[in-house]
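Reopening this ticket.

The earlier resolution said the output was attached, but the attachment link was broken on my side. Pasting everything inline this time so it's all in one place.
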Amino acid sequence: MGSKSRERIYGGSVRASAERAAEARKVADRLACEAWNKRVLAFQGPAQPSPALGDALNAGFTYLEVKCLGCDTHQTVALDVVRRPKTTPIHDLERYMRCKDCSEVRGYPYKRSHLVALRPTKISASDPPLHRWPGER
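Inline output:
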């Protein structure tokens, strides 16, 4: 006569609570990213503190919309290919953003840009860039 293993007795409840914890982290990350997007709107610039790169990816925000101040174009950057640690805050990425078009015209890396928002999708005809700041077209 043998006894039941601990895995058999407690395994289901352990797995269920781990799944609930993962879902709670995902919801918390999504709310943090949405709050950061609203702070960026309110302060018209990169609000600090910002969510970490890994938190944005966990929440489903896989793109960062950036506005070039030289040519007024909006572009999206895929966050899953950014070569930085997942603990890097989003606002720290601003210093590394360079506009390709402006850099080719000027002949040197042009780094004047603003972070606009975290986005779940790329800019397209059905999902246009965010023009959220007052007075901006």
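Reporter confirms the inline version is readable. The CA atoms of residues 95 and 111 lie 7 Å apart. The two ends are 77 Å apart (CA to CA).
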